[in-house]
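INFO batch 0412 | record 1 of 1 | parsing
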Amino acid sequence: MTSELTSLLWVSALTSVMWIPYILNMIMVRGLMNAVGYPEDPEPLSPWAQKMKAAHANAIENLVVFAALVLIAHAAGVSNDNTVMAAQVYFWTRLVHFASYTFAIPWVRTVSFVVGFGCQVVFVLALI
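INFO prediction complete | emitting tokens
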């Protein structure tokens, strides 16, 4: 497996577990029956859990683009030091973005998002 595919695996694994803390908060706040049901007027999640849920949604949206680029590069046989580094940096930017979004750390969330976008641009440039 290429380094880029390994990074995609880790990004996918990270994204796949991001929901656990905010769902646990949902169960704590609403109770199990309302958490698994469709209550008319559900209790809101804790502020940190609301932010975490939004960060998870953002991670999913960006995973679609990142995964497509990594898979296209792999299919095209495009791999170099830049794509390897971009794929590895992308994982860390998503982790930092998730934490900084959850804990409302100004600037860090935005910078980590922009760096992650830059990683996607590296793949686009390598492919064209």
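INFO post-check: The chain has a mean pLDDT of 96.
INFO record closed
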